[in-house]
C-alpha cells in the first residue's frame, strides 16, 4: 500500500510539473504567425484553446509513462524469465479518465466547434465580391465592373469580402496563410469564402500575405502563388477605379 501511495505521489508531482511547463509554453509563448484578418483571430483562439486543454492530457500520459519506466523497471541484471504479477484495473481511475475526456470532448464540440464555425461563417453578406479562377498554375482575379488582375490580389481593409472561387482545369485550393482560411477550387463548381482583412499590409511586410495553392496540382504547384495587398478603403477604391479605367 505504501509503495502504491508513493507511486501516486510521483505521478501527481510529475503531472503537475509537466502541466505547468506545458501551459507556460502554450499560453506564454506567441509562436503563431501574424494575423491579418478577423477570421485569423477566430482560428488562432480555437487553436490556443485546444492546445491548452490538451496539455493536461498529454502531461498525464507522459507522467504515467515516466512513473512506469522509473518505478517498475527491472532491478536485476538480465532479462526476466517469467511475466510479472498481473496489475488489476483501477475502476475509479478508469471512470475518472472517461468522464474527464468525455467532458472535454463535449466542451470543444460546442466551442470552438459549433460556436467557432458559426463565427467564421458569419452573415451571408459582403461589402465586396471578388471572383477567383484557378488554373495551372496561375490565378485570375475579377473585381466588380469586370476589372481583372492576374496573380495579384488587392483587398480593402476592414471590409467583409466574399470570394467566389472556381477552377478551370483540375482541383486546386485557395489558401491565404495570413488569414487562416482555405477552400477548394473545384472545376464546374463555385465555392464561397468570406474574410475581413484587418489593417493595411502586403507580401513585402509578411510573406504569409499571399494566396497559395494548397492542393497538389502538378509540376508548377509550389509556384502557384500570388501576393496579397491590403489597402485602406479609400486607397483601394482609387486603385480599383484606375484599374477599371485602364481595362
Automatic annotation (TrEMBL):
<dbReference type="InterPro" id="IPR014222">
    <property type="entry name" value="Cyt_c_oxidase_su2"/>
</dbReference>
<dbReference type="GO" id="GO:0004129">
    <property type="term" value="F:cytochrome-c oxidase activity"/>
</dbReference>
<keyword id="KW-0479">Metal-binding</keyword>
<feature type="transmembrane region" description="Helical">
    <location>
        <begin position="47"/>
        <end position="72"/>
    </location>
</feature>
<dbReference type="InterPro" id="IPR036257">
    <property type="entry name" value="Cyt_c_oxidase_su2_TM_sf"/>
</dbReference>
<keyword id="KW-0186">Copper</keyword>
<dbReference type="GO" id="GO:0042773">
    <property type="term" value="P:ATP synthesis coupled electron transport"/>
</dbReference>
<feature type="transmembrane region" description="Helical">
    <location>
        <begin position="93"/>
        <end position="115"/>
    </location>
</feature>
<comment type="similarity">
    <text>Belongs to the cytochrome c oxidase subunit 2 family.</text>
</comment>
<dbReference type="InterPro" id="IPR002429">
    <property type="entry name" value="CcO_II-like_C"/>
</dbReference>
<keyword id="KW-0812">Transmembrane</keyword>
<keyword id="KW-0472">Membrane</keyword>
<feature type="transmembrane region" description="Helical">
    <location>
        <begin position="7"/>
        <end position="27"/>
    </location>
</feature>
<dbReference type="GO" id="GO:0016020">
    <property type="term" value="C:membrane"/>
</dbReference>
<dbReference type="Pfam" id="PF00116">
    <property type="entry name" value="COX2"/>
</dbReference>
<keyword id="KW-0813">Transport</keyword>
<dbReference type="GO" id="GO:0016491">
    <property type="term" value="F:oxidoreductase activity"/>
</dbReference>
<dbReference type="GO" id="GO:0005507">
    <property type="term" value="F:copper ion binding"/>
</dbReference>
<protein>
    <recommendedName>
        <fullName>Cytochrome oxidase subunit II copper A binding domain-containing protein</fullName>
    </recommendedName>
</protein>
<keyword id="KW-0249">Electron transport</keyword>
<dbReference type="InterPro" id="IPR008972">
    <property type="entry name" value="Cupredoxin"/>
</dbReference>
<keyword id="KW-0679">Respiratory chain</keyword>
<dbReference type="InterPro" id="IPR045187">
    <property type="entry name" value="CcO_II"/>
</dbReference>
<keyword id="KW-1133">Transmembrane helix</keyword>
<feature type="domain" description="Cytochrome oxidase subunit II copper A binding">
    <location>
        <begin position="125"/>
        <end position="242"/>
    </location>
</feature>
Amino acid at each position: 500500500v505504501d509503495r502504491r501511495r508513493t507511486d501516486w505521489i510521483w505521478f501527481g508531482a510529475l503531472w503537475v510539473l509537466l502541466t505547468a511547463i506545458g501551459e507556460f509554453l502554450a499560453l506564454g509563448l506567441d509562436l503563431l504567425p501574424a494575423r491579418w484578418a478577423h477570421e485569423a483571430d477566430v482560428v488562432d483562439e480555437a487553436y490556443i484553446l485546444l492546445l491548452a486543454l490538451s496539455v493536461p492530457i498529454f502531461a498525464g500520459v507522459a507522467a504515467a509513462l515516466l512513473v512506469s519506466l522509473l518505478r517498475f523497471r527491472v532491478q536485476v541484471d538480465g532479462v526476466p524469465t517469467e511475466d510479472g504479477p498481473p496489475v488489476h484495473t483501477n475502476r475509479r481511475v478508469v471512470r475518472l479518465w472517461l468522464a474527464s475526456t468525455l467532458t472535454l470532448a463535449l466542451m470543444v464540440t460546442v466551442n470552438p466547434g459549433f460556436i467557432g464555425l458559426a463565427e467564421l461563417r458569419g452573415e451571408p453578406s459582403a461589402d465586396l465580391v471578388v471572383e477567383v479562377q484557378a488554373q495551372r498554375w496561375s490565378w485570375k482575379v475579377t473585381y466588380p465592373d469586370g476589372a481583372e488582375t492576374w496573380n495579384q490580389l488587392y483587398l480593402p481593409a476592414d471590409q467583409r469580402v466574399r470570394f467566389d472561387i472556381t477552377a478551370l482545369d483540375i482541383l486546386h485550393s485557395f489558401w491565404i496563410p495570413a488569414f487562416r482560411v482555405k477552400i477548394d477550387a473545384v472545376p464546374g463548381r463555385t465555392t464561397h469564402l468570406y474574410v475581413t482583412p484587418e489593417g493595411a499590409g502586403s507580401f513585402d511586410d509578411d510573406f504569409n500575405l499571399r494566396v497559395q495553392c494548397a492542393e497538389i496540382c502538378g509540376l508548377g504547384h509550389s509556384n502557384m502563388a500570388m501576393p496579397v495587398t491590403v489597402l485602406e478603403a479609400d486607397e483601394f477604391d482609387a486603385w480599383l477605379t484606375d484599374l477599371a479605367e485602364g481595362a
